Amino acid sequence: MKRFRPIALVAAGVLAFGLTACGSSGENGDSDVLSVGVFLPGSVNDTGFMQSAYAGYTRIQEQLGDKVDASYVEQVAAADYQQALQRFASENDLVISVGGQTDADLRKVAPQFPDVKFVEIGGPADAEPMPNLAYYDPQQAQAEFVAGAAAGAASKSGTVGFVGGVELPAIVNSAKAFQNGATFVRPDIKVLPPQYVGDFNDPAKAKQAASTAYAGGADVLSQIVNLGKQGMEQAAQETGNRMSGGPIPGDCTNAVYSGYVRTDIGTEVEYAVNSTLDGTWRAEQVPFGLTSDKGGTDYIICSSDPAVKQAVDRAKTAIADGSVTPY
Predict the structure, then answer these.
(1) According to DSSP H, which parts of 200-305 are helical?
(2) Which of 166, 181, 256, 327 would you call most buried, defined as having the most Cβ atoms within 10 angstroms of its Cβ?
(3) Any idea where the ABC transporter substrate-binding protein PnrA-like domain is (predicted)?
């Protein structure tokens, strides 16, 4: 069984991460064991990307514990990304960074450690890989296109909307895809301008944004806000409206949710480790989505309305056959 040890990552002259970084015990003296560090800038309990990635990390430990010496760090301040990544790179063969917000720092750190493999999950879809840096694209936009189609079909008011966290390229593209999906199944639907609250994990800001959208006539919203979903859920409950959940599917018995976008970031963490172990790892853009054979992305319908199922099926088919571009 793995024991956990703290990893003291020094930043700005203080021990910034001693309580939030954990790994398997002991120094790795076996060259056949792959040393892996998973960098999670948010909380492993965020009900979103970080928690999904952490689930993949846990599966790696359970299934590959004799082949992998794994550690992770969570809840890292943006100002400390670079030093934390440098420390991780100095201790690991493979560093997996989750979230496009780490891209600028990761591109600075990767060239400093040419013998270390790096993977960024959720970075810019058009980013140019570096010799030792691969990009894994969850293709959130594909899922949000389907979420838009579901929202368009489910809306009674004829108005829908989208709330995002940080205004990163992947989130902006997802908002565009949501709009395109809604108009794909219902050309006359009104899609409110997307709202970006500047934080994935601020329930108060997300609630305010959702309340504004509901007051503006929307009765179904989609989102990419992680912990911010708590605030959006409150807004939906208070106004009698609905929303799409995700990226971790929840319980359809909660009447607030019209469905869930499933984006399994843990699948991408596992792919990075397995491809490194079997020698197939490449510094390239790797897509994960509805059109990928790697799995990890789907839309789960909670509505019993047959029109919603029909809209979701139409959207998925259109993406698969290439007749539409999500954004």
Answers:
(1) 203-215, 229-239, 265-277
(2) 181
(3) 35-242
Residue whose C-alpha is closest to residue 43's, from 203, 206, 227: 227
pLDDT per position as a tens digit, 142-196:
999 999 999 999 999 999 999 999 999 999 999 999 999 999 999 999 999 999 9
Supply the DSSP string of 37-102, one letter for each residue.
EEEESS-TTSSSHHHHHHHHHHHHHHHHTTTEEEEEEE---GGGHHHHHHHHHHH-SEEEEESGGG
Q: How many CB atoms lie within 10 A of CB 66?
A: 9
Question: Residue 146: which of 257, 310, 294 has the closest Cα?
Answer: 310
| 299 exposure class (CB count in 10 Å sphere: 0-12, 13-18, 19+) | buried
Residues 6+ apart with CB under 8 A from 294: 267, 271, 286, 287, 288
Helix (H, G, I), strand (E, B) or coil at 323: coil
- Taking the C-alpha atoms of residue 21 and residue 39, their distance in angstroms, rounded to an integer, is 9
H-run or E-run covering 117: strand 117-121
Inform me whether the pLDDT recorded for 267 exceeds 90.
yes
Residue 178, Cβ density class (10 Å: 0-12 exposed, 13-18 middle, ≥19 buried): buried
The Cα 314–Cα 319 span in angstroms is 9
The fold adopted by the segment(s) 4-139+265-287 is: Rossmann fold (3.40.50)
Superfamily name and number for 140-263+295-321: Response regulator (3.40.50.2300)
Residue ranges, comma separated, of all CATH 3.40.50.2300 domains in the chain are: 4-139+265-287, 140-263+295-321
* This prediction's pTM: 0.86
What distance in Å separates the CA atoms of residue 200 and residue 225, rounded to the nearest whole number?
Answer: 4
pLDDT digits (tens, 9 = 90+) for 247-260: 999 889 999 999 99
Residue 134 one-letter amino acid: A
